[in-house]
Design a protein that fits this description.
There is one protein chain. The chain is globular, with a radius of gyration of 12 Å. The strands form two sheets. It has a three-stranded antiparallel beta sheet, with no helix packed on it. It has 71 residues and is mostly beta strands. A hairpin with a 5-residue loop joins strand 2 and strand 3. It starts with a strand and ends in a 16-residue tail after the last strand.
């Protein structure tokens, strides 16, 4: 299932690896909904004062999350 991100305060950048291997980095806008397609690797970088609403499966954890490096 897809994952949803909404920036509530502060600043954040959402990084997503597309199916062609490219990484798209998007500076998030306050209150805007961002949807990451199921199966796409992603990461979020946030400011210290950021609050982000994240909607994901209840069984999402470090054990079933893919790790990757952005080069």
């Amino acid at each position: 299932t897809p994952e949803i991100f909404v920036l509530l305060c502060g600043s954040a950048v959402l990084h997503e690896r597309k199916s062609d291997g490219s990484v798209i980095s998007t500076e998030m806008e306050f209150g805007k909904l961002y949807e990451i397609e199921a199966g796409n690797w992603h990461h979020i970088t946030v400011s210290r004062d950021a609050t982000v609403l994240v909607v994901e499966n209840s069984d999402t954890s470090g054990e079933n999350t893919e790790k990757s490096f952005i080069l």
